[in-house]
Amino acid sequence: MMLLLGQATRALLTPPFAWRAEFVSETFTAVKRSLIPVVVTTTVFGTGAPGLTGGNIVNVFGAIDRMGAFFVMACVREFAPWINGMVVAGVAGTAICADLGARKVREEIDALQALGVDPVATLVAPRLLALGLVTPALNLLATMGGIFGGWIATVVIFQDTHAGYISTFASNFTLVDLIGSMLKTSLFGFIIAIVCCYKGMHVKGGPEGVGRAVNQAVVIAFAAIWAFNYMFNSTMLAAFPETGNLH
Question: Taking the model in full, what pTM does it have?
């Protein structure tokens, strides 16, 4: 996978850029498939899990207005990027793996190589770039959906004021949180793309092999995202310890 990542990166930076048309198509497809699931999931999750659970905890201490500060930690740093990565891997990543796997089974990839066309440059590179850019863009919408879910839990369910939620959120939200969230989800997209492309281009066993490759790609992508998320958050909190304090 690392070798494939290196080849795809070189293809993206080396002219002629034959991947541009495929990049536009894959970007549109990824957005179309992932947009609604990402927004709906983060909004509902934000209202239900951290909204109700976190709200019940802080409400015991009479500090329901602190939900805004809590959602900087819960939404911006954690569950919005995490859910975004899960949805992109489960929706766009599986589609990429199935598409490349079907091409491999039909021997289209071998035919491209026989014609002197580099399949990495024409198939892998545009998908890598597409997910690397689409995932952080969707993360902005996921974050807004999660924040809105927290607002529903705070204002509608626990009957706190709108100003209390917004003021504590604004006092704890920093540029480091936003940049870290965007960078992390962009790297999520690259991880998903390279895993799914690798599995799709190395399918064996006909149509059944395509199904196995899709399942394996999702499991590997999920595990890689979880491990990378832990390492990234640990590094960010160590480099910027002030982000770990709630005001």
Answer: 0.92
